[in-house]
User: Which sequence fits this backbone?
């Protein structure tokens, strides 16, 4: 699931506005390999999503959206490499267009103790790049994130901090166990703002075709035509006293890990990602 993130809109969307994608979109297909300490299983895949408008409030800054996202998840024997490329165009109420391009690569160890990350975001003529490595002392322990871009940037990570795929596996585990609420601290390195507190509300189990439609479920294949849960995630700054989250994300998470539908809620407008293509990446010979 994937897991980039979002910040409140203030005229432009910053890099962190798409961190939720990193944390909540690892699609799972084919033969499975467990992520250590989790029952959820991940395998190599490649997926393409269309970006479509959700609700746009009257009088808001934006009136439409278009674009697409490509994602891959690949086993490298010692863990997983996840890559995302997103292109999005937002149409403003004044008739202009805000173009955005985001690229992200993360390499997460199977035991969840090491995470290398690179993020590049271009919004209009502005570009931001972030690169570094995060390490945990031990599974479930504390850790640190050290950036090479910006050079020397250091962020301490609290105990039990999860990286993107570990967080996705955690949510699948909790859903399978019948839990309806799951909280975690998550770090992805998509920008330099540090980890976030994520509260997930897990809905009842249902068939994917009841959410995305029978034709869409059949077109994606048997791996997408399965049962799963709608999960709504609320993202908060660490130690925030605000009752209202910075942003929210809702996704259909299937029991095998496939995420065919995602809703990004910006409060005054929302964006929907619909999976339109899914294929397997064969595991390497380790």
Assistant:
């Amino acid at each position: 699931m994937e897991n980039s993130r979002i910040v409140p809109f203030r005229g432009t969307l910053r890099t962190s506005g798409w961190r939720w994608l990193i944390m909540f979109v690892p699609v799972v297909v084919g033969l499975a390999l467990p992520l250590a300490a989790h029952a959820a299983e991940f395998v190599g895949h490649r997926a393409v999503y269309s970006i479509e408008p959700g609700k746009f409030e009257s009088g808001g800054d934006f009136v439409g959206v278009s674009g697409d996202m490509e994602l891959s998840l690949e086993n490298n024997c010692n863990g997983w490499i996840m890559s995302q490329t997103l292109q999005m165009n937002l149409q403003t109420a004044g008739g202009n267009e805000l173009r955005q391009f985001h690229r992200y690569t993360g390499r997460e160890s199977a035991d969840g103790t090491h995470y290398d990350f690179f993020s590049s975001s271009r919004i209009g003529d502005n570009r931001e790049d972030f690169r570094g490595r995060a390490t945990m002392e031990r599974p479930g322990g504390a850790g640190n994130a050290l950036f090479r871009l910006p050079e020397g940037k250091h962020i301490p990570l609290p105990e039990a901090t999860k990286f993107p795929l570990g967080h996705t596996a955690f949510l699948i585990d909790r859903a399978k166990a019948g839990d309806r609420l799951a909280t975690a601290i998550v770090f992805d390195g998509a920008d330099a703002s540090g980890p976030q507190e994520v509260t997930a509300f897990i809905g009842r189990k249902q068939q994917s075709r009841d959410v995305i439609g029978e034709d869409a479920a059949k077109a994606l294949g048997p791996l997408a035509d399965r049962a799963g849960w709608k999960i709504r995630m609320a993202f908060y700054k660490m130690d925030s006293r605000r009752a209202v989250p910075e942003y929210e994300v809702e996704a259909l998470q299937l029991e095998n890990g496939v995420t065919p539908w995602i809703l990004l809620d910006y409060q005054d407008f929302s964006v929907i990602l619909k999976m339109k293509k899914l294929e397997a990446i064969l595991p390497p010979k380790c």
Q: What stands out?
A: Confidence is low (pLDDT under 50) at residues 2-34. Helices lie at 19-23, 164-176, 209-212, 214-220. The first helix runs from residue 19 to 23. The two ends are 25 Å apart (CA to CA).
